[in-house]
Amino acid sequence: MPVGKLEDKIPDQKYVLKRGNYNIRLADSLERRSEASALIKRMYSWRGYNTESTSVSSSHNQTTLEALSGQELVGTLALRLDSDEGLLADKLYEPEINPFRARNRKLCELSKLAIDPHFSSKELLASLFNLAYIYGRVIHQATDFIIEINPRHAGYYKRMLGFHQISEMRTCPRVNAPAVLLRLELDYVDAQVSRLAGVHKPAERSLYSLFLTKHEEKKIANRIWHINEATTFGWNALCG
């Protein structure tokens, strides 16, 4: 899938990023959040997970990214900044999470990752994580990502993104499936982006070769702010 030049990655006002055959936008309306919830429910059901907790909420601490192929929604990823409201992972892993809070780490939780297998690709996954990094790190100065993941998939995230497992396996009640908690230190991501971003080597055993360069990510961060300013909502109202 071709990556293209940066100007080709931003097609119009609605989208944050265009790459290859798909566009990525913010789920910044009730209609978009409903569409995202429907995709998450369909993908979780396909994997045999409980689907009672698949709805995408509207919260000033959360935003949801949506990937589209044409007009079809094919991927989602939600981000939640740590706050007094806590994180979804606190239900199972608060003892593992609290030591990072005690060290004044600024946590950002990734959840509700769902990609239609007919459209799945390294480029799509890299773009969702790249935008999550821009949102969490560049805009909100997060220090760490955490994510609850099925142990079957944990190895991929460790190998391709550098996550580390910080918990034992437990059953996640939201999806009624086994889960482990992974952590990714964003200082590490900074270094990988500086070293690998823009390389685009298909054989590279890292998604960071598909990330935007530092120069490009600043333009995307500004693009997010521009989309915010072009609406009647504040930035917090975009989060959901």
Automatic annotation (TrEMBL):
<dbReference type="InterPro" id="IPR054597">
    <property type="entry name" value="FeeM_cat"/>
</dbReference>
<dbReference type="Pfam" id="PF21926">
    <property type="entry name" value="FeeM"/>
</dbReference>
<protein>
    <recommendedName>
        <fullName>N-acyl amino acid synthase FeeM catalytic core domain-containing protein</fullName>
    </recommendedName>
</protein>
<feature type="domain" description="N-acyl amino acid synthase FeeM catalytic core">
    <location>
        <begin position="35"/>
        <end position="185"/>
    </location>
</feature>
<dbReference type="InterPro" id="IPR016181">
    <property type="entry name" value="Acyl_CoA_acyltransferase"/>
</dbReference>
